[in-house]
Design brief:
Elements lengths: L3 H26 L7 E6 L6 E9 L4 E14 L16 E13 L6 E10 L3 E10 L5 H17 L4 H11 L1 E2 L4 E2 L3 E8 L3 H26 L6 H20 L2 H8 L4 H4 L11
């Protein structure tokens, strides 16, 4: 039976590998005209880790896309530790994860979000998901996304209906009484059968790359008008509202002394409110 440190190393290595693969595939769409800029960061106490952020902005395809990976440790504050599974006793944690948010120049192409993580306190668990936020509805695209995510869940003996419902409930703006996008899957506290869960996490990462490429290739050459861009900018405003008001990842990053620029990487370069 592998010990906890070995499991941590395996997860950390996988997230680093996946980050490099996502950047390589996304850069391909820019045809050499734009490349990711790398930024490394560390927590104030360097013994508690840090991360690497890759950001590409102002491209032919991407208005802005960030691919962040971090591995950090430390102690939660006494006021917060009771909110985290297994942390109430001493507050100690270790966490590694990857997060991707892509905002497209072409308003016909949806924003895409993906993240997976592994958290260790006195408990260990995986979490994450993928969701899509279009400003223009496309039923074929919606079917493509949900069919693929359902397929990988069934293959790995995961409850797709539960994950989909969790995603719909999570990515919802109660003050607007509307969903953020067309959903996807979202899950947390996957702590039974580490080997099977880690396999699912790896396959979900590769599925994200495959799905993203399919979504982009379907619409990359579609023409759009100013009114389409205006609609996209308003939808991006909803994205901003959700991430600042409700997103758990944003809150976790802030209370764990993460890098502010990386935490707010999900913010679009431009948004609009009416």
């Amino acid at each position: 039976m592998m010990n906890s440190n070995f499991r941590k190393k395996m997860v950390d290595s996988w997230f680093s590998y996946l980050q490099s693969q996502i950047c390589r595939e996304f850069e391909f769409f820019e045809k050499g005209k734009k490349k990711f800029l790398r930024r490394d960061w560390n927590k104030k106490n360097k013994d508690e880790g840090g991360g690497t952020s890759f950001l590409l902005s102002g491209g032919n395809l991407f208005d802005k896309v960030g691919v962040n990976k971090s591995t950090v440790s430390g102690k939660f504050s006494k006021n917060f530790r009771h909110k985290i599974l297994g942390a109430s006793k001493n507050g100690k944690y270790w966490a590694s994860g990857i997060s991707v948010v892509a905002h497209m120049k072409n308003p016909k192409i949806p924003a895409i979000h993906f993240n997976t993580r592994f958290i260790v306190t006195t408990k260990e668990w995986f979490g994450g998901g993928m969701d899509v936020t279009p400003s223009h509805q496309d039923q074929q695209e919606k079917k493509l996304v949900h069919d693929k995510l359902k397929e990988i869940c069934i293959k790995n003996r995961k409850n797709y209906k539960k994950y989909k419902r969790w995603c719909d409930d999570y990515f919802y703006l109660p003050h607007r009484k509307e969903p953020r996008g067309i959903g996807g899957i979202f899950f947390d506290y996957e702590k039974n059968n580490w080997i099977r869960n880690f396999k699912f996490i790896r396959e979900l990462g590769l599925t994200f790359i495959d799905l993203s490429k399919k979504i982009i290739e379907r619409k990359n050459n579609l023409k759009w008008k100013k009114k389409d861009k205006e609609k996209q900018l308003v939808k991006r405003g909803r994205y901003v509202e959700f991430n600042l008001l409700y997103d758990r990842g944003t809150k976790f990053g802030l209370i764990s002394d993460g890098n502010i620029d990386s935490i707010l990487m999900s913010m679009p370069p431009k948004a609009k409110w009416k």
